[in-house]
Amino acid sequence: MSTITFSTLVIIPTYNEIENLPLITGRVLEATPDVRILIVDDNSPDGTGDLADKYAESNDHIHVLHREGKGGLLGAYIAGFKWGLERDYEVLCEMDADGSHAPEQLHLLLEQIDKGADLVIGSRYVPGGETVNWPASREYLSRLGNLYISFALGAGLSDMTAGYRAFRRSLLESIDFDELSKAGYIFQVDLAFRAVKEGFDVREVPITFTDREFGESKLDGSFVKDSLVEVSKWGLAHRAEQAKELASEVSRMASHELKDGKLQEGKKAVSVASNNMKDFLGEVSRMARHEWDSFKTK
Ligand SMILES: Nc1nc2c(ncn2[C@@H]2O[C@H](COP(=O)(O)OP(=O)(O)OP(=O)(O)O)[C@@H](O)[C@H]2O)c(=O)[nH]1
Ligand SMILES: [Mg+2]
Question: A single GO CC term, please (predicted)?
């Protein structure tokens, strides 16, 4: 068990999770009794926030942050991160309220933080990770989306959209929250990509993701399209930068070792490769959108 759980805050955003709240808080405190929980409730009409207040009154491991109305997951997490950073928490975690992120696996994330990671992502798509009870179409879509993101960004991560995470405070302190992308759930990708680009130690651990049993999904139909468009922009900018670096590296080497003819060939190969990549990204993006449309009409 992790030695740092005493300074760990598990942030759980809620919107209409009255059935799940007792289950999730009970499971977290059973599995990792030393952590603190922060419920960030957006004035849930079903009374989740009132129930959370009752828990907080009788249990000093549970805290509640109330927001005025449904303001989206990113806003809820930013509020939760700021709350935790203003206090002396060393590790801040993201966890859904609906049981998709098993509290019994939180220790897997915390152990990697203990070993030096700055961000640990509970991943469905590394070996050993899995999804349970997800409709095949939704899993396919999520896998395809992640494949696309991983090719587009080249960040070396398999599940950048995942929302089960542990952050070291220094990583969050380095992020300007106002700059994070607001399109759909893409802030998760944005956060992970920024961490990788800044050279933080980002790791994935396999988790079992279980579909929600109770309550309703807040998934918004526009998110796939918005997200892919956004990622494509970053991906092309990032890859273009990489291609430029590669091209100058090739020509630097070539000026020592190759004749002029070969140098031209090297430059051409780089430009063909980056054009192919653009075509490939366009193709995967079309496939993902098509999948999403057929998923919506089911
Ligand atoms: N505070 C707050 N929490 C939210 C908001 N939208 C979603 N959540 C919570 O964020 C977590 C993830 O939302 P979900 O509805 O489970 O989204 P999902 O996992 O993509 O969809 P499901 O298939 O329903 O599981 C849950 O704990 C929600 O209650 C919001 O606007 N504000
Ligand atoms: Mg969910």
Answer: membrane
Query: What are the tens digits of pLDDT across the range 100-144?
Result: 999 999 999 999 999 999 999 999 999 999 999 988 877 877 888
Q: Is residue 227 part of a domain?
A: no
Report the nearest-CA residue for atom 11 of ligand 1.
Answer: 96
Same domain, 212 and 237: no
Q: Based on the domain organization, do 135 and 255 belong to the same domain?
A: no
Residues 51 and 82 in one domain: yes
The size of the chain, in residues, is 298
Q: Are 37 and 169 in a shared domain? A: yes
16 CA from centroid of ligand 1 (Å): 9
C-alpha count within 13 angstroms, C-beta hemisphere, residue 236: 12
Residue to mutate, 96, 101, 146, 207, ligand 1, most ligand atoms under 8 Å from C-beta:
96
Ligand 1 site residues (CB inside 6 A) read 13-15, 17, 40-42, 70-73, 76, 96-98, 100, 212, 217-219
Are 51 and 174 in a shared domain? yes
Query: Nearest ligand, CA of residue 216?
Result: 1
Distance between Cα 230 and ligand 1 center (Å): 21
Of the two residues 213 and 272, the one the predictor is more confident about is: 213
Q: Exposed, middle or buried by CB within 10 Å (0-12, 13-18, 19+), for 7?
A: middle
- Burial class (CB within 10 angstroms; exposed 0-12, middle 13-18, buried 19+) of 75: middle
